[in-house]
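Why does residue order matter? Because the sequence determines the fold. Keep that principle in mind as you read this record.
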Amino acid sequence: MKISQLEGKRVALWGWGREGRAAYAVLRARLPALPLTLFCPAAEVDAARAEAGTALDVRGEPSAEQLAGFDVVIKSPGISPYLPVAQAALAQGTQFIGGTALWFAEHAAADGTVGNTICVTGTKGKSTTTSLLAHLLRAAGHRTGLVGNIGLPLLEVLDPRPAPAYWAVELSSYQTGEVARSGAHPQVAVVLNIFPEHLDWHGSEQRYIQDKLALVTEGAPRIAVLNAADPQLAALSLPGSQVIWFNQPRGWHMRGDIVHRGEQPVFDSSDTPLPGRHNRGNLCAVLAAIEALGLDAVALALAPAVQSFRPLPNRLQRIGAREGVVYVNDSISTTPHASLAALDCFAGQRIALLVGGHDRGLDWSDFVQHMAHDQPPLEIVTMGANGPRINALLQPLADAGRFGLHAAQDLAEAMNLARAALGAAGGVLLLSPGAPSYGVYRDYVARGRHFAELAGFDPDLISAIPGIGL
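Structure:
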């Protein structure tokens, strides 16, 4: 649906975060006479009214009947379309879309393709992958937009002048289905991996996978770049797209630390600034996507640009060392699999691991199995709402002497317990919670900032995302 097609319809906004504000600004600019209603939490109503003025009818959280009174509801990504009120309104004919769908519809050519747009998704690694993609394209002299879930809503860059040569778009599982619903098709879509996540938003693991894969199964990109090492992706059949595989011997893949293109060794990635082997592996996804655009990926891989890439904050971020303790901020980690990947990055070192946060019902049994059979950290400190559940699962292994185990009420106590466990010998104090921050922090960024502050570092110096925007 294009923005012009909203004219004459009953339209509401649902959510007044950055995405909601971006949608409001665009609608006011394009359709200034269109009546608009905003639904938002009661605590935000007064602030929204003060910000928007009389041009916006601001109300609290909607009922199903209120939503059903509109033809189209433009919702923010964090609001699940599977909520009962949304499902009831949908059954009565209300259409729910987001800013992602509007942006793609506006940029689609006559055949539905959004040219020179590379969408990146995956349960973990998508932000670093999208940033590295934009970094290498810019290094090759191409004006590139780094936008989307990484922190810049698409509707904030609806019609830039001059337009970029390429768009590097990060999409969360909240947004991937929006591309399909827009009726548009990305030129290239990259899917890195699939692990269970955001089950509270999607409602089930099956629906999460379905929504995540909608980018390629329903979005029908011209070219799909997929991870052959992921069983969910390896089983896909995409007759409407050309498929390029990475992490398999015929394409871009890793052999040890050496990046290969087929049988050709290209370069040693061991001294790149990419944090973690999984992120160096995702470099293969970036190079495959660049090649899908018709560019010389080998030349870009060999360019000094790879070495000048700046890792993103809150993602295996070494924020500094004090008294023999290296503090690593992996606050973006919201699944047990992400915590395992973080541990792998520091294998062989003395590690005190902080895990736990908002409990959305994810299964930690695989994490526990790894702690039983792989080299575990020296100490594990659990915290947050799901801390007691994780602690109970780990207790038999701790009793057997596999590692030390403590329970903390909050992050400050967890860090004190971890420092005490590392002792004078020092080591790595790793925040990789494997759980969201909801209920205690606004988001994972706020949690990472608090971690830095508690460690004695300036949170402002560790929070900026390099390269975001055009």
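The first strand starts at residue 11 and ends at 14.
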